[in-house]
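Researcher: Can you fold this with tetrahydrodeoxyuridine in place?
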Amino acid sequence: MTEKQLVALAKDAMRGAYAPYSGYTVGAALLCADGAVYTGCNIENAAYTPTNCAERTAFFTAVAAGERQFLAIAIAGSPAEIDENGGRKIEKLTQAAWPCGVCRQVMMEFCDPDKFEIILATDTEHYDIYTLKELLPLGFGPGNLK
Ligand code: THU
């Protein structure tokens, strides 16, 4: 699985997004150490706070399936015109979808911050790669409880 392929899966996962309130649709594709890939999308809620981000949808689906080791996550998302089902009408990406702090913390639970790669689609053609440590320096993780 190349980085480019993972980004393509993240973009495809945006199709599942349910974002009638923000109009900001996100897709994520999570690569596990065993080679499996789990995707996720953001799922919003009329009460707002129950909303789940794309990254956490992907992580929680993978963990529920028994996965515990992860190599990389690709994320794609940007504001869009939303259709009557809460999905996006247009394909074009206009900005990088930076993962929120809560999602970075969920990554910290399962991933090596020095090695785990966060691949951000920056527009329709390009992507940038960061380590989890770059996006969550001095993060709090399971090791701090020992
Ligand atoms: N969102 C994500 O899916 N991932 C992030 O890391 C940032 C935010 C979603 C949540 C909400 O549905 C919409 O984007 C706007 O905040």
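Model: Folded with tetrahydrodeoxyuridine in place. The helical segments are 3-13, 54-64, 101-110, 132-135.
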